[in-house]
Amino acid sequence: MCWHLMVRRMRKPKITIVGSINMDLVTITDEVAKQGETVHGEDFRTLFGGKGANQAVAAARLGADVSMIGKVGDDAFGSRMIENFEANGVDTKGVGMEEDTPSGIANIIVSDKDNRIIIVAGANGKVDRTHVEHFSEIIKESDIVLVQFEIPMETLRYTINICKKEDVPVIINPAPVTALEGEYFKAAAYITPNEHERASLFKMREDGLPEYYDKLITTQGAQGASYFKDGREIVMPPKSVDVVDTTGAGDTFNAAFAVGIAEGKDIEDAIAFANTAAGLAVGKIGAQSGMPYRAEIG
């Protein structure tokens, strides 16, 4: 075993998340209202969320040394979200509080074991290049950086450029779907779309393979996740689980995959680890409430 891999396995992997921080406003209902219609819901909950925050908490629970770079608003939600990071062992030096700005929120309707989500960016829209640059040393010291598409794309490009310059592997989780120039996907170590995001973002090459196929880890819901080996797509199914709420399953997968790769696992073992973590996450309501701890996976 090479020396740097031995050192990595002797310590916690250092993962930095650059992304969104939201409060999830979750309504649980048997019936989704049509336009102009009012229906009775079953329950309402206020839960911590945001793709970036979800991935940070999941990675920390799975044993990584995690730093979060992002912003919250100067409201009650913002203070609570910072406290939640600290309670989960996430370093918050890179989390700013934006004045006169609400925190980001996600309005989530859970019905028939699936979800519909509306996002309001709030302070997430103020995560600019200057903020990331101020905490660039955190990025430079990372084993892996994980980004998503819920902050301004200019900031995302700048973050990827820092990673490329400093030779820090970056995982791009292209959600929600937004166009990004190919040079940034080329700079990624891995790209982790779901099936719909992959179809929207990546063209098929002349040989029948999708663009950047060698970097693609595609999440496929109940079917598990896939990767490409020797020009062939291999699907790795998850264990059978009882699904309660799929919110946050993809974020748990991404965090667990990042942890696995940072620990030195190969792609197959990292995907298997991530499938197991995501399977445990769907057993409870809410993005973060169901995210597993390392002891639950082994």
UniProtKB/TrEMBL annotation:
Residues 13-292 form the Carbohydrate kinase PfkB domain. It comes from the Bacteria. Its EC number is 2.7.1.15. Substrate binds at residues 22-24, 50-54, 150, 251. ATP binds at residues 194, 219-224, 250-251, 275. Pfam families: PfkB. K(+) binds at residues 245, 247, 281, 284, 286. Homodimer. This is Ribokinase. It comes from Lacicoccus alkaliphilus DSM 16010. The lineage of its organism: Bacteria, Bacillati, Bacillota, Bacilli, Bacillales.
